[in-house]
Amino acid sequence: MRRSAALASIAVFTTLAVTACGGGKPASTAASPATASASGGTVQVLLTADYSHLDPVRGWDGGVNNFYRLIYRGLTTFGAGKGAEGTKIVPDLATTTGTPSDDNKTWTFTLKDDIFFEDGKPITSEDVKFGVQRAWDPEAGIGSPYAKLLIEAPKDYKGPYLSGDLDTIETPDAKTVVFHLKKPFADFPSALTQPNFVPFPKGTGAAAAFDSKPIASGPYKMESYQRGSKLKLVRNPHWKAATDTVRAARPDAFEFTFGLDGATIDERMLAGQGTDANAIASAIQPATVARIQDPRYKERTLSGYMGCTTYMSLNTTKKNLGDVRVRQAVNHAINKDHVVSGDGGTALATRATAIQPPTIVGRVDYDLYPTDLDKARRLLAEAGLANGFDLTLDVRPVPRQQGMAVAIQESLKPLNINVKINNIDTSTFYEVIGTPSRQHDAAITGWCPDWASGATFLPPLFDGRNIFDKGNTNLAQIDDPEINKRIDEIAAMADVDAANAAYAELDKQIMAKAPLVPLLYEKNVTVTGANIAGAYLHDSYSGGIDLVSVGLKDASK
Fold first, then answer.
1. Phi and psi (nearest 5°) for 188?
2. Which residue, 73, 294, 317, 447, is the most exposed by fewest CB within 10 angstroms?
3. What is the pLDDT averaged over residues 472-484?
4. CA gap 342, 373 in Å, rounded
């Protein structure tokens, strides 16, 4: 989440489960009532790092996607509710989830009445078109790839600021938007839930303007922002609750505090003093796991699987890693039990073998690369690298990432592979590793499905025709004709179950080429403030707390 999404260390609110991942996602447990009945007050959000971007065409990970729903609206969105309710695709600014024609290659949407930006200006089809077109901007469009992947556009189109309007998005009147796709895509309403399908007034947002001052279409607008320190949202007076079936919008405000030490957050949340009783926070530190077993915290603990895969990408364009035998050797050498320990132990993760996590429909469990140093040495010798080589590993400077990186470093030492750990600031990490010219040999990152389908897991990571100069999600930079062909064949399947089964087989086919090392399926746990209500884990946001439903039990406190 990327989010889609890529395991952001911010605003990830999930799990405590000590059993191994099985064939389905265990039920989440909420720490507070499912509905926040009180209106008013301020919810505090305590985080270790700032959001990647406030501009939704730039940011794209589980934490910030969740945040976007407070200030932005799209044509469709995910529902609000536990379990399956949170994975339903529902209308948002549009009256329905769309009308397909031309064998699902053309999609038409009608906007609701009484929808406005924060300045009171009505939201029109032209605003929707302009907002979507921004995904093609070479500087801004570094977030979700789905607009560029699905909507027909000239190869040289560079967004509205440089190229003007895109003819394949039509606006026949102020209420109607028509999208013409590259090929039939029956699940287009699901793609529209992604953050870069957000409307903006035509001509706005150039030069990263929305990263400092977004234009809200949702129930909240930004009152103040100090990058890396504080962000405050207050009510958008032009948002109409009658037009929005998803956002409860009960608090008067949200105050986000960034840059806090993880251990400090844990201490504050466990103590729950003052305004911290009204707080939610990021995942607890591994050292805190034992402490929350105390019965006093049971009612304030959230648990449930994240549904993502943490992995180490292997850059196939690098000299040594361009050889499949070297990549296979690396896979055989890494002791994933040690990686799990580095991440905080089995309370917080289980070892991964397949690319897709157990929560993906149709996914099959297998292990092509059991730990085997002798086999790894033979493969390196065949590749002419018996004496090893140097490898630079990009990671974020957060404890769990560092623990995993050290475990990888130690696993590869017996092969004389010298791993240099390269720390990149959390707020810019995805931007850096998503720019091929700035990538090193490998990176520890992760992927979460954008919606409940295998189609949102393998194609974004391995389709070689979609390697972008910026906002690239194919970190291995693998462009394999067999993989590309199979992706197209599965995408053309009309039977969703058959397609998901085919993706499970493609998972194995890709891993035979070893473009990454699946490391683990992360589990997290968080504790909420005693006055928090409506907090539950949302399956569509990396298992995180759905911010649009959170409120206070007593707004006067």
1. -60, -40
2. 294
3. 97
4. 20
Enter the pTM of the model. Answer: 0.76
With 0-12 / 13-18 / 19 or more C-beta atoms within 10 angstroms meaning exposed / middle / buried, residue 13 is buried
527: β partners: 301
Place of tokens 């707004």: 555
Taking alpha carbons only, the member of 233, 209, 236, 210 closest to residue 222 is 233
Answer whether residue 2 shows pLDDT above 60.
Answer: no
DSSP per residue, 155-220: TT--HHHHH---TTEEEEETTEEEEEBSS--TTHHHHTTSTTS----TT--GGGHHHHS----SSE
- 346 class by beta-carbon count within 10 Å (0-12 exposed, 13-18 middle, 19+ buried): middle
Average pLDDT over residues 129-133: 98
Q: Which two tokens stand for residue 433?
A: 């590793």
Q: Work out the number of other CB atoms within 10 angstroms of the CB of residue 203.
A: 9
Phi/psi of residue 169, nearest 5 degrees: -115, 110
Separation of alpha carbons 228 and 47, rounded Å: 10
Q: What share of the chain is helix, strand, coil (3-state, %, to 5)?
A: 30, 20, 50
pLDDT at 59: 93
Q: Which residues pair with 302 in a beta bridge?
A: 526
Which amino acid, 443? A
CB of 14 closer than 8 Å to CB of 357: no
Cβ atoms of 169 and 132 within 8 Å: the answer is yes
First to last CA, the chain: 35
Angle between helices 481-491 and 496-512 (to 10 degrees): 170
Average pLDDT, the chain: 90
d(CA 27, CA 83): 7
Tokens 């009510």 — which residue?
235
pLDDT band at 34 (very low <50, low <70, confident <90, very high): very low
> Residue 405's closest CA among 348, 447, 448, 445?
445
Q: Cα-Cα-Cα-Cα dihedral of 403, 407, 409, 413, to 10°?
A: 160
**Hey, how many other C-beta atoms are within 10 angstroms of the C-beta on 68?**
26
For residues 160-166, give the mean pLDDT.
Answer: 97
